[in-house]
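Just wondering, can you check both lines?
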Amino acid sequence: MIYYLNFTVSILIILACFYIIYLVFKRNKKIIVKGHDDIFTIALIMFFVIIIFPITQTITLMEIVRNICIYTFLFSTFAIKRGISEKGFEKVFFTVPWSTIEEIEVSICQTAKFQVVCNTGNFHFKLIFNNIQLKRVLWELDKYHKNIKIEKALQDLLIKEGKQRQTL
């Protein structure tokens, strides 16, 4: 019984991997500005998956196949681009349409990165971008949405960058 359950789970995960391949070819072309998810969340998910589905010598061959399929699925999600497209805010497996976004907050995340948080009322969706992409991201966000809050430090960074270009 467990053998068939593991076999079924493996088949479903392989089908999900084909869906990821579809997303890579279809949706990756539509991403205008590429961002990425928070590494802490990804690492936490990977940690728990490795703990829950270990590959050891004490498990059966079908369980090993199932676990390898799960690892393949998780690592293949890194091939799916996240970012901003004409349709909306692109996350791993779904798109947050521009029409559902109520507010966008842009703030500093790390030394050379900033985060964009889209609020839809009940949910918050976050992507992280490099500071080099700041003008492009703000330009794209402004094209699709008008309710954008920008942190003061990022505004100062834009002004400073503009002054440096004028002196050159």
